[in-house]
Specification:
coiled coil
């Protein structure tokens, strides 16, 4: 029977490679670019982009806000819990306490790391929004655009309220996990050790 290397055309003496040369790339690439395509920006397009940017700011702002609150309370949201249950020592309370302490420290450090990255992203998106508003100022402040802008603002406000409720619900579940001592379910002997 033929072995895999022979069937796949692989040489066992060396790893064969293939690459695209610059000449090949120049031959294949299209000469025009997307920036050369004609574009006509409508108020609906501007409204969609404005909504997207403002929603992104809300996402990042609330994410950083809630993670900061979790960190201050030293509570770890489910998405930051390390899902690593010990294979030995579960019957030793001192060992389990140390194990969860290590996991908690790691999770809290990750929260701080994410908050820092969220801060950088938030700054970038705010700059992007300012540049976008400056670039489209004439369209954004025209009389004909006010209906679209009002609709965008309403949509953004609803988005913020929905996201805020979602995050509050998650916070409630996390608090319940701590109240019921189910942060790390393997501690209570549950079979599902996902958390």
């Amino acid at each position: 029977m033929e072995d895999f290397a022979d069937r796949a055309g692989l040489n066992s003496e060396y790893a064969e490679t293939w690459h695209v040369s610059e000449a090949d790339a120049d031959r294949v690439l299209w000469t025009s670019t997307q920036t050369e395509l004609p574009s006509s920006t409508t108020i609906k397009d501007v409204g969609k982009e404005l909504t997207r940017l403002k929603q992104r700011i809300i996402d990042l702002d609330l994410h950083g806000l809630f993670l900061s609150d979790y960190y201050r309370a030293k509570k770890i949201p489910r998405g930051f819990r390390i899902r690593n249950a010990p294979t030995i020592g579960r019957s030793n309370p001192e060992f389990c306490k140390k194990w969860t302490g290590v996991l908690n420290r790691c999770s809290l450090d990750l929260i701080v790391l994410v908050i820092e990255e969220v801060s950088h992203d938030l700054t970038k998106v705010r700059k992007e929004l300012t540049a976008f508003e400056n670039e489209n100022q004439a369209l954004l402040y025209s009389d004909s655009s006010q209906t679209v802008i009002a609709s965008c603002e309403k949509q953004i406000e609803q988005y913020k309220m929905d996201l805020l409720q979602f995050k509050r619900d998650k916070l409630k579940r996390v608090n319940e996990d701590y109240s019921n001592h189910k942060v790390y379910r393997w501690l209570s002997g549950e079979k599902n050790t996902n958390l």
